[in-house]
What does this fold into?
Amino acid sequence: MRKRIVSVIGGHNCTEEVEQLAHNLGKKLAKVVSILACGGLSGVMKAVAKGFKTGGGLTIGITPGYNKNEANSFIDVVIPTGLGLARNVLVVKSADVVVALPGEAGTLSEIAYCLQFGIPVISLKSWDIPGVIKVDTVEEAIREVKAKLKPR
Amino acid sequence: MRKRIVSVIGGHNCTEEVEQLAHNLGKKLAKVVSILACGGLSGVMKAVAKGFKTGGGLTIGITPGYNKNEANSFIDVVIPTGLGLARNVLVVKSADVVVALPGEAGTLSEIAYCLQFGIPVISLKSWDIPGVIKVDTVEEAIREVKAKLKPR
Amino acid sequence: MRKRIVSVIGGHNCTEEVEQLAHNLGKKLAKVVSILACGGLSGVMKAVAKGFKTGGGLTIGITPGYNKNEANSFIDVVIPTGLGLARNVLVVKSADVVVALPGEAGTLSEIAYCLQFGIPVISLKSWDIPGVIKVDTVEEAIREVKAKLKPR
Amino acid sequence: MRKRIVSVIGGHNCTEEVEQLAHNLGKKLAKVVSILACGGLSGVMKAVAKGFKTGGGLTIGITPGYNKNEANSFIDVVIPTGLGLARNVLVVKSADVVVALPGEAGTLSEIAYCLQFGIPVISLKSWDIPGVIKVDTVEEAIREVKAKLKPR
It folds into this structure.
């Protein structure tokens, strides 16, 4: 049966507080979905992958360059696209549901793609754009993820 | 000598008012830059290409599909990427300066890419995101385009 | 620890004989590598995924369109790229080693990318291009895959 | 009216003889088609662009990276894709007809894409793959280009 995928997006630089948030989110997401996709690099991408693996899930890193070593050490499966920022499309399109953590323009482009594709995007202290589902806590985010994963 | 390129982004559906704005913008841009790039489809993309051609410029349409006929009839040169929405990256990265007209999530993704690349993006009644140059009239937009085109 | 990936490429239409070959190859590859990547569609891609799953492995389909349902039913994880034929690059670049089965121009483009990237490509009754490792049986292919997977 | 585009493909390293061939081809192509597309880099791409400009045409370079300066100095319009080798698809798909000069695996991937798309590809001392139109001289290549450009 097809695996469900959650993507988590957010900055490659982040504060310790956001890092902790991402780690915590990842750990709890692993109880809800079997696969995490992300951009595979540092910051939010690394912290969430670490948490998700701690929680027992499988992590996929869809990276911008061609070198698999570009991926952080918590990525199980690297898809080295060589597409640069165009890989953002793939990060969100692979997902059944997306959670956005704080990030800058790259994160914004990914949120925009979610809206364009009609993929539910949950903003946890991230950009507030019409169409996103705003939440304030990891618990709320998890609740929304569960709600958006259509039962099969 | 390398040609200067301006990209204009905006919705594939637009009101008659925005269509008029895009046409007017295109016509005036053609006096300032020799080449216009855009997404090549309908709405803002078609109106601005029509105006730019009226003004005497050359238009490039960087389209999402593989069929050249997808491009509107005011596009001189079609680059049919087949990349879907990932082609948004190319539309803005080709440009020395970008003007954003009203549009939805697709336009937002393109503005986000401009910010990430450091390409100046002038928002003419479009999204108001930190980092864009907000203007209210075609004249102001043209003035900003001129200012951003570094003399060589 | 990073998962090893084998990619199998080949035609989306194939004879029953090649289908059997692909299925058999997939089944045996699953004993050697934990993850199979492929283009996710029909023909060789479907038969090899079916075999690989029978053998107990995890299958990733890197598909050209945006619709996850485009993937065959033996794909566990769909990466719906929307990149059209440009997704061929990702299919081979994800792999540590590639096996080519009979196919037409699409398969040839993927073999060419392997050669350009320096990814070992084993041709099992497929294109005979300078640089590929020609083999005639599934057993030989498996032996070459094992040899090319660098021990860690 | 939509501009016709010819793409010329070939190695980024080439012998002086091939360089001369590419330059000569470019110069003569400019009398037949108004726009040349190519990969924008060195070797065949540079020589053909130089010839095409000498002949009075407009040159487009569809480059793999994000830096416009990566393009050779005979490129009028740079489309800096950032797509790496996936940009090969765009180089050939932009064209009404393609001429292949000697090159290695990159050139082979482009020929393969032509065959897959059904774009006529004329091989001038390049790869001999079923489906290409083999020619031995620039004159023959020009004659084939003319034949393939459908009258409108």
In short: Chain C has a mean pLDDT of 97.
